[in-house]
């Protein structure tokens, strides 16, 4: 295995965009620009297929229980059900189609429960503070809150968590 | 006594239902607790860190495993020493004392008052020892084949380690995937309660297996002698320990112990934590600490890679918790509780790299360095066991259908080698189906075997086919033998005990 082929997420706990791309987990650029779409940051063969039966448009496919999930990008509507049900909290929805801002939907299981209009700190995959975001939608399923946050243009593929209070 | 309340009143996932208030005596003072709590939890919630003093050096001891597997929470309760405070429910009027050393043997008058008042003999089809995921599914499966079942657990409620799992389980919908562990415990416990063929003995310890196929079980006031046609040992696992100076200080707790404190009972285990070990347990506990409002300063991992699954690691990394690979704990500091933890980087041979030490002000050091099968009862019964590093320690040799060298004695769940709750449930089902294929009505026995074969195929060929489970699978392969090999072992190492 050459250096460029090696995945580093097992050493860091952080997956790089380029790694997601190599695993076919990143939607193509034209799909990203079209509107909300799910990104499943699920790079390992966990015996789990919960997202498959819950997807209302049958956009998520898996060959076996240990296969990586595959999204048929044009079927995905970015509804966020997978964000709510993924046991690994590894599903996100991004919307890069708006001119003024990006929108990111993340799973959230910390107190306080964010409310629409709240200003929150937005965090990267490595926990860095990327700035501030505004909560635009919140819903809940079995105590996982699905929170959509409006962030600065360009941060849609970077923001992966919110912190309810300004740090 | 300082007025401290470590109870959690708001939690993102859990709602804590506390019983009515009760008052008991601790070191001569009246203290309050809630029904449903154990003595250990009630005291921990009040800010008590020291539960006893060690016999030789008089060092302070606090809770460690919180599930009755270790001796760290021994106290003297109502005059009787060496009571596991983590397994002893609070009650009005208890007299609880810190123990100094071994404790004084109770006076005969006290023993007289506390002696077992009943003795009961029970004959049953299946006895299941352990009420965790494997045992619960085993009991329900056997009852489903019209077999009479007794299920025993040393805790005062069923559920095992599911009780403290707040995360949603992987798997598929049929395997409870998507449900949180404690929700699975609730669901299975409710089913067991509604099943007339299952008798549940909680707060009861299986202390030995005897010639003639008897199992001795003792609860606080009843001594049971049970004669089952088949026995399923589903005793789970215990946390491994790690050597470092001051590893015995209160505040050095098993990761699972901390989960019991915060998730089962809603008590904050500390304020600032260091987690040692980045397997799934370490990663999950780090995330759960965050949910309970505890600051996690770091997760350290001695290997160059994170041990657990990426998605669990990603959950803690995105909240800024560092996972420091090639690092371990060097020592802890503190007097009656951990105050500091010093970590150090290691080289390829795991030697400490001088000068790389870092200091953390923490009151919690959680050990998440692995589990070992609790095979004690199986070994006492005479089962042939094997040391399998991939499975965490000694575990009985068994067939695919999970029968051990002790005839009609089966294993299921972590005692059969450490995996996780989903495989434990599948194994519980397989063991019960294997028994049903022997004991059930002839109209149903072949169906039981068919069902078992189907699950075996799924477990070995689909579920365990994941590269993430390769190590455990390899381990399980080394202790799984054919019926012929099992018979050969029985001849070479005959056990005086058999069931059936």
Task: Note down, in words, how this protein is organized.
The complex is a heterodimer of chains A (167) and B (500). Chain A is an alpha+beta fold. Chain A has one domain (3-163). Chain A is built from 5 helices and 9 strands. Chain A has helices at 9-12, 17-22, 29-32, 51-54, 81-85; strands at 37-40, 60-61, 70-71, 91-95, 101-108, 119-124, 129-141, 144-152, 159-163. In chain A, the strands form 2 sheets. A 7-stranded antiparallel β-sheet of chain A has the order 1-4-5-8-7-6-9. A two-stranded antiparallel ribbon of chain A has the order 2-3. The longest helix of chain A has 6 residues, at 17-22. Chain A is globular and about 40 Å long. With 500 residues, chain B is α/β, with parallel strands linked by helices. Chain B folds into 3 domains: 21-114, Ubiquitin-like (UB roll) (Roll), CATH 3.10.20.440; 118-238 and 372-492, FAD/NAD(P)-binding domain (3-Layer(bba) Sandwich); 250-369, FAD/NAD(P)-binding domain. Helix content of chain B is 27%, strand content 27%. Chain B has 12 helices and 27 strands. In chain B, the strands form 7 sheets. In chain B, strands 9, 10, 11, 12, 13, 14 and 27 form a 7-stranded mixed β-sheet that branches. Chain B is globular. Classes of the chains: A alpha+beta (167), B alpha/beta (500). The A-B interface holds A 9-15, 41-50, 53-54, 64-66, 85, 87-90, 109-111, 113, 123-128, 142-144, 160-161, 163 and B 10-13, 167-173, 177-180, 183, 290-291, 293, 304-306, 309-321, 323, 325, 422, 462-469.
């Amino acid at each position: 295995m050459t250096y460029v082929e090696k995945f580093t997420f097992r050493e860091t706990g952080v997956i790089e965009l380029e790694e997601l791309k190599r695993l076919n987990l990143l939607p193509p650029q034209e799909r990203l620009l079209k509107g909300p779409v799910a990104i499943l940051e699920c790079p390992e063969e966990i015996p789990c297929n919960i997202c498959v039966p819950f997807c209302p448009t049958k956009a998520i496919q898996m060959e076996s229980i240990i296969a990586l999930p595959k999204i048929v990008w044009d079927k995905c509507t970015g509804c966020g059900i997978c964000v709510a049900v993924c046991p690994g909290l590894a599903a996100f929805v991004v919307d890069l189609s708006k001119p003024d801002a990006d929108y990111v939907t993340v799973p959230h299981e910390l107190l306080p429960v964010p409310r629409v209009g709240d200003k929150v700190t937005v965090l990267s995959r490595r926990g860095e503070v990327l700035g501030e975001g505004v909560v635009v939608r919140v819903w809940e399923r079995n105590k996982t809150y699905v929170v959509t946050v409006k962030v600065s243009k360009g941060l849609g593929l970077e923001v992966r968590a919110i912190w309810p209070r300004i740090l | 006594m300082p007025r401290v309340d470590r109870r959690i009143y708001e939690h993102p996932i859990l709602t804590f239902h506390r019983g009515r208030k009760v008052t008991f005596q601790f070191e001569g003072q009246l203290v309050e607790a809630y029904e449903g709590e154990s003595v250990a939890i009630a005291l921990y919630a009040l800010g008590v860190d020291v539960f006893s003093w060690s016999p030789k050096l008089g060092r302070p001891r606090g809770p460690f495993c919180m599930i009755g597997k270790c001796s760290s929470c021994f106290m003297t309760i109502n005059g009787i020493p060496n009571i596991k405070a983590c397994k002893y429910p609070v009650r009005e009027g208890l007299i609880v004392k810190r123990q100094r050393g071994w404790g004084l043997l109770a006076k005969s008058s006290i023993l007289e008052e506390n002696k077992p008042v009943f003795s009961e003999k029970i004959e049953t089809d299946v006895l299941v020892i352990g009420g965790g995921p494997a045992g619960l599914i085993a009991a329900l499966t056997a009852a489903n084949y019209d077999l009479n079942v007794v299920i025993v657990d040393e805790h005062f409620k069923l559920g095992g380690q599911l009780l403290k799992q707040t995360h949603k389980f992987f798997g598929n919908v049929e395997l409870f995937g998507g449900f949180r562990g404690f929700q699975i415990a609730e669901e299975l416990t409710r089913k067991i309660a509604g099943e007339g063929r299952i008798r549940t003995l909680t707060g009861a310890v299986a202390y030995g297996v005897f010639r003639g196929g008897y199992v001795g079980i003792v609860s606080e006031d009843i001594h049971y002698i049970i004669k089952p046609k088949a026995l399923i040992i589903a005793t789970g696992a215990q946390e491994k320990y790690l050597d470092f100076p001051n590893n015995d200080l209160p505040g050095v707790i098993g990761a699972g112990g901390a989960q019991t404190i915060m998730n089962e009972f809603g008590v904050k285990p500390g304020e600032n934590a260091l987690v040692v070990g980045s397997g799934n347990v370490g990663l999950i506990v780090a995330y759960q600490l965050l949910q309970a409002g505890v600051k996690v300063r770091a997760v350290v991992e001695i290997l160059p890679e994170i041990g657990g699954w990426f998605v669990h690691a990603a959950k803690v990394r995105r909240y800024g918790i560092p996972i420091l690979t090639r690092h371990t704990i060097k020592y802890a500091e503190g007097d009656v509780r951990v105050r500091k933890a010093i970590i150090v980087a290691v080289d390829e041979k795991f030697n400490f790299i001088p000068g790389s030490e870092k200091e953390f002000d923490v009151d919690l050091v959680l050990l998440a360095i692995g589990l070992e099968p609790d095979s004690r009862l199986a070994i006492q019964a005479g089962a042939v066991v094997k040391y399998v590093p991939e499975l965490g320690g000694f575990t009985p040799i068994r067939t695919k259908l999970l029968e051990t060298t002790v005839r009609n004695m089966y294993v299921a769940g972590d005692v059969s080698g450490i995996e996780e709750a989903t495989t434990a449930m599948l194994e519980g089902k397989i063991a019960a189906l294997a028994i049903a294929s022997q004991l059930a009505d002839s109209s149903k026995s072949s169906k039981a075997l068919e069902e078992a074969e189907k699950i075996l195929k799924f477990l070995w060929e689909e579920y365990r086919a994941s590269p993430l489970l390769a190590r455990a699978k390899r381990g399980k392969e080394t202790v799984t033998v054919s019926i012929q090999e099992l018979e050969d072992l029985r001849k070479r190492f005959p056990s005086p005990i058999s069931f059936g």
